[in-house]
Amino acid sequence: MAHSQATKDALRKKYIFDGLSLTMAAVVTEVSYPTAQRWKNAAQEEGDNWDKVKLAHSMAGGDIEDMSRQILADFIIQFKGTMECIRNDDKMHSSQRVELLTSLADSFNKAVAANRKMLPETSELAVAFKVLGLLSKYIQEHKPDLLPEFVAVLEPFGEAVAKELK
Q1: Cα 68 from Cα 62, distance rounded (Å)
Q2: Which pairs count as long-range contacts for 78-82, CB under 8 Å and 24+ apart, including other chains?
């Protein structure tokens, strides 16, 4: 059974833009899975890599960023809970405590590093606030007469920076 170009386009759209698996896109468009796979492979041979387009669409839509934020938030909750357990366990041997803290610190560093790669705006925001802190310290030490004016604009400016860098 020959399918129209509209059916092929619909399958591609369901797979790429609607986020369906190839199997589900085939079911929805009433195409057999082998036919859907053949169309996808043929498109790739012609330079239309559906998987790359799907990934780019997903990243542009914020899905990756939202997922990264949620993963980091979940990790921080687990981190805090684990720290609380370590802190409150009076029966834990000191060597075990050190081993757990070392492992936890390593996991934290890896999670933060991965987060910087996935969410560059988080890193940018951290740098921006660090620079504001350094500027505040500099003014306090070298130009204390400017401090009242600086403090008056610091909070609204900080909010503007946070909004700009999201």
Answers
A1: 10
A2: 79/104, 79/107, 79/108
